[in-house]
């Protein structure tokens, strides 16, 4: 494999180093290109740019491979719990039993919010999207839990901050839902595991504990595992970029949540349900919706289909699809949207338009359906994605801060605006 590349500009050749990853991926190191040639690379939307070397997550979009710290996501989804997978990401290896117990106890200990944090929720109109509340309150946590030292420079502070974030984001998420429906907040319980505790805080009432369904709890574990990391996606890159300015970890994660709220990133699972609802309202006409989504440059897309990285079946979608069909069989006939989803998936996969462009269902197509089947309201779907992605964000923040050189992220641009123009005073402007 080459360890140098040659670039020719205006007849002059420049040698550029090549970096190699452990799975055979290679990148041409252009970090000194500008100082050597005055040229920069141009890559809008960073489709072909490696922004870092990372040891957290491996994806092969052509083969449909996703691994966390080397372990295939299929094995984790089948055998692991979310907090075990989170530990793997956050601390670099699978925990021993004692380590997992320590982590679990820390999550329980830190699940409650500082009493004053509750007041934040009343400052938002009840119509506020829960992602907005989540990102704002997570940012505010830095005021309540200032880190005694920089978590990137002290392992113990990193551990405690990671635990606080993991524990409190789940509670904030549930509280934002309770606020949106005008119900009192339900405190976390010490005897419940991570996902069960979340369902309890979402659905219990002050004098009526919610009966936690084991299938729903398992579904949440799987969904969170599938979302736990996805290397340099939009929200993770945002966390890294914001953190590179030495913004505190809470502010960096809050920025990631905001990025994730976009409808073509983490908001897609909500979009999928809204699309199904639209089709249902229009009499269930799948063909007409599909035809519109297949018009070139149409603003209408088939939500939950396509992916920047996967040009084959999204491996996460494969796992959740199986689970989704199991849940659908359990709920058969109970929800017309779920029936529409099944037909839509089948029809789209036969269309030449989708086949030619390698557009397959992504994780969000099925995750929305599973979440709906277990009773999670649609506007909470992106929040569920955020809870799942949290360990990935925290881990990337730490890795970015420990990388050498730890420079502030700062892309360049090709300026295409007006050339030098003189200021014209307002009284003589036309
Ligand atoms: N429906 C219809 N056409 C599509 C779709 C879709 N969902 N996705 C891509 N295309 C077409 C697109 O119009 C373009 O066609 P043409 O070559 O004729 O111009 C071609 O496929 C390539 O699309 P692109 O926009 O260049 O692809 P991208 O890599 O920039 O975008 C994407 C990836 C995920 C933003 C896009 O596929 C999309 O908008 N999908 C729907 C939203 C969605 O499901 N997002 C969740 C992604 S999974 C969660 C995550 O990891 O963030």
From TrEMBL:
Task: Kindly give the InterPro entries that the UniProt entry links to this protein.
Answer: Citrate_synth-like_lrg_a-sub (IPR016142), Citrate_synth-like_sm_a-sub (IPR016143), Citrate_synthase (IPR002020), Citrate_synthase_AS (IPR019810), Citrate_synthase_bac-typ (IPR024176), Citrate_synthase_sf (IPR036969), Citrate_synthase_typ-I (IPR010953)
Does the keyword field hold DNA repair?
Answer: no
Q: Which is one Gene Ontology cellular component term of this protein?
A: cytoplasm
Pathway noted in the entry = Carbohydrate metabolism; tricarboxylic acid cycle; isocitrate from oxaloacetate: step 1/2
Q: Which GO molecular-function terms appear in the entry?
A: citrate synthase activity
Q: Name the CDD domains for this protein.
A: EcCS_like (cd06114)
Q: What Pfam families does the annotation carry?
A: Citrate_synt
Q: Which UniProt keywords apply?
A: Transferase, Tricarboxylic acid cycle
Q: Which GO terms describe its biological process?
A: tricarboxylic acid cycle
Q: What protein family does this chain belong to?
A: Belongs to the citrate synthase family.
This protein is called Citrate synthase
- Protein source organism: Candidatus Danuiimicrobium aquiferis
Kindly list the organism's lineage.
Answer: Bacteria, Pseudomonadati, Candidatus Omnitrophota, Candidatus Danuiimicrobium
């Amino acid at each position: 494999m080459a360890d140098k590349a040659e670039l020719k500009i205006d007849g002059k050749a420049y040698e550029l180093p090549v970096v190699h990853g452990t799975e055979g991926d290679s990148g041409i190191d252009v970090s000194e290109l500008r100082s050597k040639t005055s040229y920069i690379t141009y890559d809008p939307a960073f489709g072909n740019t490696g922004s870092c070397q990372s040891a957290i997550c491996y994806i092969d979009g052509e083969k449909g491979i996703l691994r966390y710290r080397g372990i295939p996501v299929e094995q984790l989804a089948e055998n692991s719990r979310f907090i075990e997978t989170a530990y793997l990401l956050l601390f670099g290896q699978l925990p021993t039993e004692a380590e997992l117990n320590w982590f679990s106890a820390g999550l329980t200990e830190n699940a409650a919010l500082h009493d004053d944090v509750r007041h934040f929720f009343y400052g938002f109109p009840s119509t506020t999207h829960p992602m907005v509340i989540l990102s704002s309150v997570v940012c505010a946590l830095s005021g309540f839990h200032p880190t005694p030292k920089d978590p990137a420079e002290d392992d113990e502070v990193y551990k405690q901050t990671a635990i606080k974030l993991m524990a409190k984001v789940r509670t904030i998420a549930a509280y934002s839902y309770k606020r949106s429906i005008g119900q009192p907040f339900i405190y976390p319980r010490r005897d419940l595991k991570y996902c069960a505790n979340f369902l309890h805080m979402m659905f219990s009432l002050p004098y009526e504990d919610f009966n936690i369904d084991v299938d729903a709890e398992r579904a949440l574990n799987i969904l969170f595992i599938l979302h736990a990391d996805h290397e340099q996606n939009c929200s993770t890159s945002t966390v890294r970029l914001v953190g590179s300015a030495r913004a505190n970890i809470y502010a960096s994660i809050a920025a990631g949540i905001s990025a994730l709220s976009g409808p073509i990133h983490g908001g897609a699972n909500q979009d999928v349900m809204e699309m199904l609802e639209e089709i249902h309202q229009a009499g269930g006409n799948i063909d007409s919706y599909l035809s519109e989504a297949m018009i070139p440059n149409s603003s209408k897309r088939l939500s939950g289909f396509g992916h920047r990285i996967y040009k084959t079946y999204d491996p996460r979608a494969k796992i959740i699809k199986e689970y989704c069909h199991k849940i659908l069989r359990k709920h058969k006939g109970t929800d017309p949207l779920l029936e529409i989803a099944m037909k839509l998936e089948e029809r789209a996969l036969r269309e030449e338009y989708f086949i030619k462009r390698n557009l397959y269902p992504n994780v969000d197509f099925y995750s929305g359906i599973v979440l709906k089947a277990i009773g999670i309201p649609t506007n909470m779907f992106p929040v569920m994605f955020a809870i799942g992605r949290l360990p990935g964000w925290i881990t990337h923040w730490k890795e970015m801060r420990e990388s050498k050189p730890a420079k502030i992220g700062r892309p360049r641009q090709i300026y295409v605006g007006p050339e030098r123009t003189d200021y014209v005073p307002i009284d003589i402007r036309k």
